[in-house]
Amino acid sequence: MHPETRLVHVHAPVPASTPLSVPLYQTSSFAFDDPGPLADGLHRPDGSYVYSRFANPTVRALEETVADIEGGVAAIATGSGMGAISTVLHGLLRTGDHVIAQHTLYGGTLATLRDLSDRFGIDVTYVTGHDPEEVREAITPRTRILYLETVANPTGHVSDLPNLAPVARAAGITTIVDSTFATPILCRPIEHGADIVIHSVTKFLGGHSDVTGGIAVFADDERYRTVWGHGVEFGSVADPFAAWLTIRGLQTLALRMARHEENVTRIAGFLSGHPAVERVLWTGAADHPSHAIARTFVRGFAAPFCFDLAGGYDAGLRFQQGVRLVRLAPSLGGTQTLVLHPASSSHRQLDEKQLREASISPGTIRIAVGIEHPEDLIADLDQALSGS
Ligand SMILES: *Cc1c(COP(=O)(O)O)cnc(C)c1O
């Protein structure tokens, strides 16, 4: 069946009948009549429910749904996207190991890799992600992980997963893909060679800006069990209520993504033709540097994108103060359209050279397009641009 159907039909059976929606098991512990199954649940992910740091039925319903949609064997839901990233990296790496990573990654991921390198002696080599030969040359006998993102922030850069993953697999290296910006509706990285797929559930999967969460999906049972054991120690588990809200959000994921993409296409087109806008950097545009690679394995482009205001830094400041319907806020993937002026907010501490290295110019605006009516969004952007 199609993702639209599978996302809606999530069940948590009880004897003789099935609740139509997934119950919220807001409980830390489970009681037993005899001790056998209790001990069992503390030693493997598929034993009895014992204690919610190990497993919880509501969290499990979320994990099984996302694992199914991504084409994985199992998933681990966590308290945030960073929780999933840290749990997977700490669960699979040890001192002396080596990681190959795409150079444009989420800021929190880059900070984690820096930390692993500085404090735990795990070296990282950064690559563009466009060239299998570059990955082959970076591999050492200690390389354990190739870390990529489907669509990266803020440039919309896409690594060539279908051609890089086989190079990693041939060398026994685990390929991890953060697919937060694509979602399983637009890309299923496991089909293209990924071993582990990570999402910040906080974004499109939750979809309503009311949940902080993460999830890691595994293509094989062995890595799943290794990371599960570590996650239990790390304590990075998802809370049942956050999982319950996410299951509710997931039911409309396919509908929301279609609307996000429709709106993004309209707004990218509007901005490209606007005299106050110097450049639009959207992966969906035929002239984007990653467009051709992306087309080989990503089905559509609904993710946040960037545009540069001709008026530079001051225009960026005026624009973010000028929007009315569109909100000034971090994050993405919710129902509301959000903008950010990185040079004066998220990247304020960088000088002009460092900004350039991060592909951000003084007049860059990031926009995460929501599911409102596109004409209302365009009207608001138009009035804000006229003042910038
Ligand atoms: C937001 C985000 C994260 C971190 O997720 P949190 O839920 O904020 O911890 C990781 N990767 C990407 C691509 C993100 O956008």
UniProtKB/TrEMBL annotation:
Catalytic activity, reaction form: L-homocysteine + H2O = 2-oxobutanoate + hydrogen sulfide + NH4(+) + H(+); L-methionine + H2O = methanethiol + 2-oxobutanoate + NH4(+)
Phosphoprotein among keywords: no
Lineage, opening ranks: Bacteria, Bacillati, Actinomycetota, Actinomycetes, Micromonosporales
E.C. numbers: 4.4.1.2
Protein family (similarity comment): Belongs to the trans-sulfuration enzymes family.
Enzyme class: lyase
Keyword Lyase: yes
Keyword field: Lyase, Pyridoxal phosphate
Source organism per UniProt: Actinoplanes campanulatus
GO biological process: one example: transsulfuration
An annotated Gene Ontology molecular function: methionine gamma-lyase activity
Descriptive protein name: homocysteine desulfhydrase
PANTHER family found in the cross-reference section: CYSTATHIONINE GAMMA-LYASE, TRANS-SULFURATION ENZYME FAMILY MEMBER
